[in-house]
Amino acid sequence: MKPEAPLLEALHLLLETNQRGLPVLDDEGALVGIIAEGDFLHRRELGVTYPEGCWLEWLLGKQEGELARERTRGLRVEAVMSRHPVCVDENATIDAVVKEMDVYQISQVPVLRKRKVVGIVGRMQMLTALASCLGEPGRA
Known about the structure:
Blueprint: H1 7-17, E1 21-25, E2 31-36, H2 37-41, H3 55-59, H4 67-74, H5 77-80, E3 82-83, E4 88-89, H6 94-104, E5 108-113, E6 116-122, H7 123-134
Parallel strand pairs: 4-5
Antiparallel strand pairs: 1-2, 2-3, 5-6
């Protein structure tokens, strides 16, 4: 995801990939931020507030033309992404990864090799791997 990408594009990509966050990369492929589900749900910091009561209808477009909705549509990823995200090196141990997640209360971290994202590891992937290891013999 590029910093100048439309915010709505990032939202659709999060939903399509079932991820909790996406890395934001500059033109050289270096990590410059991360956009996570919380960046979409905490709108107050942007000065955009949803109407009381029927926020879901508002979000889904039932009240087209409202100023806040138009403002949100015009936003780019860079406006809401978290800069300086917590990352781990590709050689980090599982204990080190879990510690970073616990300290910063996050559920996934980008994995870097020389400032380049080579993957994302999350709690669900680690639980899946654990279940595989602890499963029936020969079922890995």
